[in-house]
Write a structure and sequence with these properties.
6-stranded mixed beta sheet, alpha/beta
Length: 957
């Protein structure tokens, strides 16, 4: 017995003998009418009215049709119809769909994967295979056995009205490789593929749905371009080929015949020359390119005689079946010819499991067709497709945020909301709008970097992609007067509308205006991900294959947990439940929680409200008083910067750094000991108590006024100003304070009062300006800083307490810590406000050994020095400034972190931790002190470290 490879005979299954037995048995049991019926695949919409569906039911029962091609509708409706139809059929139906980019090509509530043109820009074909596999899995879940894809047309004509984005591009080798990869994935999932539209539909400006397009090319050209992919694709094992309705004079000798009914094309070329042994489908026989024929059924008979196996969407199945039967009876066609096609169809049915048909399970159907895995595959595809084709003056990625004023201008008729929102995660980006061009140019004068996004509908690949004349005029003028990056969220051919790109410094092809496409493009612009794609078509000024491969600036990117080895299901379920439980139990009114791993933010959620009155929900841009996290987010980076420069040493004494401490009991304490909380400092000094009237228990008139004046200019709250000279007395009092009797670990705020004094004297600027100028602005941490009321609306600042003991008002926008408030709300130990996203940037900078966004802030050696537990042998867990894991028993972490990890907590209910060994950043911000700091439920519950434990439990790599 001769054994054929599955590649040569793609319809054969692994158990060929059982398959052959089943096929022969079913065929033998069929009547002639039933055999002829197998040749027909009819179309139905799951949204069709009952009358149309009844016709399909009749065709199944009376004409014994072999298959259904489902078109528009919804997955639940289709599943139910599918189950009903299969129940009616004596021989199980072969179910087909046009699902080139997934089921969403035809169905609502299903997932849309990237168009082929987008996939054509990807350099790693494994990614294309993964897309094909997911498309296959979706088809299989919905009971679809054959997907009429991929399109393998070489789109050498930009004006092609029907192919365009459906093609992998204009390079025949790239198209072939991508098609094979897609097929490997899809057919590997158990769904048959179909290469279309044979012999090639890529170089036409007509739509065969409406007319019969002509390809007037030589045979040499047809073989070298249009037909090039088919031989390798056939050798790779494609299950079927769909023959197009085309007029190709040099290929079709039969006068007036389209390719779909030409024996030369179907039999001589496809079956004989190319040795194709899979299923051969006509393109839809109701298309204009095929329907200009004689009587009903004539074209079906001609198509069958030409060598096609399955007649797709016949206009008249009963007439066509009758004519085929008559031709059989008159011996115009032989029984062997009929058996050849019918048995191929049955081989296909066996291969897809129809010898043991199982109805579609509708439970969780929608969920199964929209999964995290789909987002992962889509994200990787888009990230690898986005193409940078112009980069004059190295305008991309965006560097030096501290000297950039960035504007975003949206062109096109679709939304760029996700693009703008994602860009704003990196820095301030203004959405500039104008009614006239003059107004736009005037508004853009204050910006030095303009990003123009061209957004058009992503609903399907046929949507318009062109610039309007007005948009071209605006773009030319904006580019003439500004540094511009043009980002196109449409097919690349849009660039053909432009006369010139001379004044445009940067051009990005993002291909699709999807949410993930917009997000990934924004990440590329800011150097969080590299550019890897290559242009799959040629443009005026840009040859095919163009594309700069840029590295990253190591800014945080944003994505899906599984991309970095974390379980989405575990992470979301556990952390969501923990935080919501904390809110329910009144541990805090609301919170922000962020998790990043391997440089990618994978969880960033806001919970609850600002206060228990539930009037304002917590939003991602809202800022919290981070309390003592200020130590490692403000004072410490400035100190580490000086250490990196060699300007200070950890062995420097406080007396040497701060002249006012010379001669005091603090003079000989080293910086290392002071910042390790191993220097006998008291925990804190309640400075504010001395300013309270002992009788009224209110702020004393000796120290406070309700209105600002030169003598009372330190604003500690609304209508409450502290005496101007009080700040100096704080440092004096610390200098004169007693030290603890015994040298042991004792957490203290006092060294950071002194660090503020040292740093501000050293630079001649306050910490607010220093941190902003030297770190926050260039990091893109624009929601971070002191004195938030100077920059943000009050409603975006989360209140910290209803103060009933000193300020006697709701503390909102002023630092909760009393000592920091008495220092103009700028403390070395407290006073900073931030959101989770910004805190993560600073912590990621530490994880990256002092590097972030293309800039070296702190040396690696300095990071290591400050992150060392110097006095572990003295039972002091702390690093220099950083908190570290407990040495034994309970402590600041879940006990599941590495000993190289570091972080800090804050009195108001905040916490952040970074673990170099897991490349992990965790941020928790809350206002547990609202309405009163006496509420210690968050602290006693251990919620913050229980969340930390859940993060580690969710790691799966």
């Amino acid at each position: 017995m001769v054994v054929f490879s599955q590649q040569s005979y793609p319809l054969y299954s692994n158990d060929i003998e059982s398959q052959r037995t089943w096929v022969d048995s079913v065929y033998t049991s069929m009547t002639v009418e039933q055999r002829i019926g197998q040749l027909f695949m009819v179309d139905v919409f799951s949204s069709d009215p009952k009358a149309k569906v009844d016709k399909i039911r009749a065709l199944i029962k009376e004409q014994h049709i072999g298959g259904i091609i489902f078109s528009k509708g919804g997955p639940m409706r289709q599943a139910k119809l599918n189950n009903e139809f299969q129940e009616l059929a004596k021989t199980p139906l072969l179910i087909g769909m046009d699902a080139e980019w997934g089921l969403s090509m035809r169905l609502d509530s299903t997932y849309a994967f990237p168009w082929n043109m987008t996939l054509g820009a990807i350099q790693d074909n494994r990614i294309v295979k993964d897309v094909g596999e997911r498309v296959g899995e979706h088809c299989k879940r919905l009971g679809v056995h054959i997907n009429f894809g991929p399109v393998v047309d070489i789109n050498v004509n930009p004006a092609n009205p029907i192919i365009g984005n459906r093609s992998f591009g204009e390079d025949k080798v790239n198209v072939t490789e991508k098609a094979i990869a897609f097929l490997e994935g899809m057919q590997g999932a158990g769904v048959l593929g179909s290469a279309k539209h044979f012999p090639g539909h890529g170089d036409t400006d007509q739509d065969s749905h409406k007319t019969l397009p002509t390809l007037d090319f030589t045979m040499e050209r047809l073989k070298n371009i249009e037909m090039y992919p088919y031989k390798p694709i056939i050798q790779a094992g494609v299950a079927s080929v769909m023959v197009a309705h085309l007029n190709v004079p040099n290929l079709v000798p039969e006068d007036g015949y389209p390719t779909s009914i030409s024996p030369t094309v179907v039999t001589s070329v496809l079956k004989d020359s190319l040795q194709f042994h899979g299923l051969i489908f006509t393109d839809a026989l109701n298309m204009k390119g095929a329907s200009n024929f004689k009587e009903p059924g004539d074209i079906d008979l001609a198509a069958f005689k030409a060598g096609n196996d399955i007649l797709l969407i016949s206009n008249d199945v009963p007439s066509a079946a009758a004519k085929i039967k008559a031709a059989l009876e008159s011996e115009e066609i032989t029984e062997e010819r009929l058996a050849h096609s019918v048995k191929k169809i049955l081989y296909a049915k066996y291969k897809v499991g129809l010898s043991n048909y199982i109805p579609i399970e509708t439970e969780n159907l929608i969920k199964d067709l929209n999964t995290n895995l789909d987002d992962i595959v889509y994200s990787e595809a888009i990230e690898n497709a986005i193409t940078l084709t112009k980069n004059e003056k190295s305008i991309l990625p965006v560097k030096n945020l501290d000297n950039k004023k960035i504007a975003y201008v949206s062109l096109g008729d679709d939304s760029g909301t996700h693009f703008l929102k994602e860009m704003r995660k990196y820095t301030n980006v203004s959405h500039v709008k104008a009614k006239t061009l003059d107004e736009m140019i005037t508004k853009l004068e204050k910006y030095n970097y303009v990003i123009v996004g061209f957004h058009r509908s992503n609903a399907n690949p046929w949507k318009s992609y062109n610039f309007t004349d007005k948009e071209k005029t605006w773009l030319y003028e904006i580019a003439r007067t500004n540094d511009v990056v043009l980002d196109l969220f449409v097919r690349p051919y849009a660039m053909l509308d432009l006369l010139s790109t001379t004044n445009i410094e940067g051009v990005i092809h993002s291909y699709q205006n999807s949410k993930i496409g917009q997000q990934k493009s924004a990440q590329l612009i800011f150097g969080a991900i590299p550019s890897k794609g290559k242009l799959p078509v040629s443009l005026k000024e840009t040859p095919i294959g163009s594309g700069f491969e840029s590295g990253t600036l190591r800014r945080l990117s944003y994505g899906i947990p599984e991309e970095v080895g974390v379980s989405s299901d575990s992470l979301n379920k556990k952390i969501d439940a923990l935080v919501r439980s904390g809110i329910t139990q009144a541990m805090m009114p609301g919170a922000q929680v962020l998790i990043a791993r391997k440089g990618k933010v994978i969880y960033n959620k806001s919970f609850g409200y600002h206060t228990y009155n539930k009037k304002r929900r917590v939003r991602p841009d809202d800022v919290y008083d981070v309390a003592s996290m200020t130590k490692i987010l403000a004072s410490l980076p400035l100190l580490m910067e000086l250490r990196s420069q060699g300007s200070i040493s950890l062995d420097d004494t406080l007396g040497a750094l701060i002249p006012e401490l010379k001669g005091t009991n603090k003079s000989n304490i080293t910086l290392r000991k002071a910042l390790s909380h191993y220097a006998r400092f008291k925990a804190w000094i309640p400075f504010y108590l001395a300013t309270i009237d002992t009788v009224t228990k209110k702020p004393s008139q000796e120290y406070y006024r309700k209105a600002y004046s030169k003598e009372f200019n330190i604003k500690v709250a609304d209508e409450l100003y502290l005496r101007s000279d009080y700040t100096d007395s704080i440092i004096k009092r610390i200098g004169e304070s007693d030290l603890r009797d015994r040298l042991s670990y004792k957490y203290s705020d006092l060294p950071y009062y002194l660090m503020k004094k040292f740093l501000e004297d050293y630079y001649g600027k306050d910490l607010n300006k220093l941190t902003s100028e030297r770190f926050y602005t260039s990091l893109g941490a624009n929601r971070t800083g002191y004195k938030p009321l100077d920059r943000f609306s009050k409603k975006s600042i989360v209140p910290s307490e209803n103060d009933t003991y000193w300020r006697n008002q709701k503390v909102q926008g002023y630092v909760h810590d009393m000592g920091a408030a008495m220092q103009s709300n700028i403390g070395g130990h407290a006073g900073l406000f931030s959101n989770a996203n910004d805190v993560a940037k600073l912590m990621q900078m530490y994880l990256q050994n002092g590097y972030y966004g293309g800039k070296r802030y702190i040396s690696k050696e300095t990071i290591e020095e400050f992150n060392t537990c110097t006095y572990c042998d003295k039972n002091v867990r702390r690093g220099v400034g950083f908190d570290k894991p407990q040495l034994s028993g309970s402590g600041p972490t879940c006990g599941c972190v590495s000993m190289t990890s570091f972080g800090h907590s804050g009195f108001t209910g905040t916490y952040t931790w970074a673990d170099p060994e897991q490349d992990l950043v965790y941020v928790f911000l809350s206002n547990r002190t609202f309405p009163t700091m006496e509420n210690r439920k968050l602290v006693t519950s251990g919620l913050r470290t229980r969340i930390q434990e859940a993060i580690y439990e969710s790691i799966i790599d």
